[in-house]
Design brief:
The protein has about 650 residues and is of the alpha/beta class. About 50% of the residues lie in helices and about 10% in strands. It contains 21 helices and 12 strands. Helix 8 (about 260-275) links the parallel strand 6 and strand 7.
Length: about 650
């Protein structure tokens, strides 16, 4: 393995080529941001004004000694008071004595007239402030409603644009502006059938009259169906690029909102904008988010909004008979779409975009290799054979990960070893070299993985192992990497071989620990049980016959017999695995010792060990009326003759 790289030097700052204009500054804040800033500044100014008024009033009115109302009336009767000021707003009277002293007294609502009469009777100068009832009410209402108003303003001006609405934005579409993509069909490889089928869309847009003269109705809806990462979005952009028409790219979630009617409004806006352009392509990714089948039962607000949006989409697609608009949609869950959406007249065509085959994977790897430098030892054809089931996105990740591995070792050229490390990372997960593992755990892991590897090598119908390692990867303490293939069908013999390989780890643990075992085979049991249940309930590969059975449902009609059959299949697989391990203990010991030293053993090294130890293949499916079958391909070619 490569040593851990040290700290890389900081790359120099890129300079602007001469004559190239400087990068324009960022986009200025929008109108909504300006309004939000103005509202915030206004609120702060209001608080400042009220605060300054309160502070000024407090500073201008120092604290005065207070006397009782009866004492204030007695002082006026005794001639000690020179002046009285009544404030009906605060229900307080300020008395200025003849010696210049100021005192304060509070009085109830009806006592103001009594103070006035006493002051007039004793020749006391009297002034008064009118009652500020209107100002007090508005002031109180302002301070009570101000927090609520601030919360509403914050939600509208700051959270509204993120949620697709706000002042003037309610119901507006969040689509990106229409553009004419630069992608072409030459940029899409590995899905030739889908490309050839979608090439007709370009002809529909370029010469629709040719089809109309023949009495043909031009399809206006194409549904791209395939697993994630197969290039459905890239295909849609390539169609628009080849046709040279504007491309509206949206997602199904763009039409889903909490408020009823918003999604339908956005659908109308998108299609109206497309009609104004005459000819255009509307692409809706993940259409299952809005096109899910409707139900007859009661629905909540969110489901009602989704159904309204779906109804509007159905109505808009019905009006495409004589328009130049093509709708492309992508999903990996075509089974959940509403039948009204997939009927003829709306989405007329269903284009399947599968994972690429061996030739397609090789072409995809060569496509991604155009912009990178590879060593002469890189064989893309061989790499394409070793990557069954990987999609275009997986292969792009593989090539990029290999480039990262090359960069870590200070190289600008990607080698075959870099691609091998990247492939192991993509399939098995990253290595955890820093994990602290005891010698006991390392030995148990070595025996466990050796059991899987030996069973996969010696069983007649099992997939060949690519490598076996005891280096922790991902969440696993060790991994046996199976090669796989591009076969679409799984035979009963191959399924039973997979069960035996899954049980190889437990069988090896029992040999190493003298009948004891660990919990390390838990994930093996889960995958084996899932396969066994499918063999019984779906594939008809058991003694119960070919009738489809219900799954392992408690209390089901066939649950007991399905449980019993699945348990018998797993027990039989474990018994076969024990026979393979005990019959090849010499190979097991050699492989374990090699794993403890080197930590990783390749298939070629494993085959050489099996030849030296004289290991013999095992037919896991041989029955009394059947003849033994040959060993797996890699070992059968190298094993000595009888």
């Amino acid at each position: 393995m490569l040593p851990r790289p040290g700290r890389l030097p900081r790359p120099p700052r890129p300079t602007r080529p001469p004559g190239k204009p400087p990068k324009p500054p960022g986009k200025p804040p929008g109108k909504g941001h300006k309004v939000a800033v103005a509202v915030t500044v206004g609120v702060l100014l209001g608080f400042s004004v009220f605060g300054l008024q309160a502070i000024t009033r407090l500073r201008s009115e120092p604290a005065l000694p207070e006397v009782s109302l009866s004492g204030a009336l007695a002082a006026m009767d005794q001639g000690k008071v020179a002046r009285v000021h009544l404030d009906d707003g605060s229900r307080r009277a300020t008395l200025i004595l003849r010696n210049g002293t100021r005192v304060l007294t509070a009085y109830p609502v009806d006592a103001g007239q009594e103070i006035t009469n006493r002051a007039l009777a004793n020749d006391v100068r009297l002034t008064a402030s009118p009652e500020r009832s209107g100002r007090s009410v508005w002031f109180t209402m302002l301070f009570n409603l101000l927090p609520v108003a601030l919360l509403i303003a914050f939600f509208i001006f700051f959270m509204g644009p993120r949620m697709g609405f706000g002042v003037g934005r309610m119901g507006k579409s969040r689509r990106r502006p229409a553009e004419v993509p630069t992608t072409r069909f030459s940029d899409v490889v590995g899905v030739d059938e889908a490309v050839s089928e979608l090439a007709e869309v370009v002809e529909f847009l370029h010469a629709p009259e040719r089809f109309a003269n023949a009495g043909a109705r031009v399809p206006h809806g194409f549904l791209l169906v395939g697993p994630p990462g197969t290039g459905k979005t890239l295909l849609a952009r390539a169609v628009a690029g080849e046709a040279g028409v504007p491309f509206f790219a949206l997602s199904g979630s763009d039409f889903v909102e909490t408020f009823v009617g918003v999604g339908a409004s956005r659908v109308r806006q998108v299609f109206e904008a497309a009609r104004k352009l005459g000819r255009a392509i509307i692409f809706i990714d993940e259409i299952d988010a809005v096109g899910k089948a409707r139900t007859a039962g009661p629905t909540g607000g969110g489901a009602e909004e989704r159904e309204n949006t779906l109804n509007q989409l159905l109505v808009e697609m019905d009006g495409f008979t004589r328009s130049g608009i093509i709708v492309l949609a992508a999903t990996n869950r075509a089974d959940v779409l509403d039948p009204a959406l997939t009927r003829p007249g709306r989405f007329d065509r269903r284009v399947v975009v599968p994972a690429p085959d061996r030739v397609g994977r090789t072409r995809i790897l060569e496509l991604y290799a155009r912009s990178r430098r590879f060593a002469p030892d890189v064989d893309f054809v061989a790499l394409g054979r070793r990557t069954p089931g990987l999609t275009g996105a997986d292969l792009e990740f593989l090539v990029n990960e290999a480039a990262l591995v090359a960069a870590r070792r200070q190289s600008e050229v990607i080698s075959a070893a870099d691609l091998q490390d990247a492939l192991a990372t993509a399939v098995l997960g990253r290595e955890r070299r820093s994990a602290v593992i005891t010698d006991r755990d390392r030995r148990i892991t070595a025996w466990h993985e050796a059991g899987h590897a030996v069973a996969a090598l010696l069983l007649a119908h099992a997939d060949d192992p690519v490598s076996v390692t005891i280096v922790p990867r991902g969440v696993a303490g060790g991994v046996t990497w199976m090669g796989g293939n591009d076969n679409s069908f799984l035979t009963r013999s191959e399924a039973e071989a997979r069960l035996v390989v899954s049980m190889g780890g437990r069988a090896a643990e029992e040999v190493h620990l003298a009948g004891d075992f660990t919990q390390g085979a838990a994930s093996d049991f889960a995958s084996a049980t899932q396969l066994a249940v499918a063999m019984v309930t779906e594939y008809g590969m058991s003694e119960l016959g070919v009738a489809a059975r219900a799954a392992l449902t408690p209390g089901g009609v066939h649950s007991d017999e399905v449980n019993a059959t699945v348990g018998a299949m797993l027990d039989r697989a474990l018994g076969t695995a024990r026979q393979v391990v005990t019959a090849n203990l010499a190979l097991m010991n050699v492989l374990v010792d090699q794993l403890l030293v080197e930590e990783t053993v390749t298939r070629d090294e494993l085959v050489a060990m099996a030849v030296r130890c004289g290991a013999r293949p095992v037919d896991e499916t041989a029955r009394p009326t059947e003849a033994p079958r040959p060993a797996s391909a890699s070992y059968a070619a190298a094993a000595p003759a009888e």
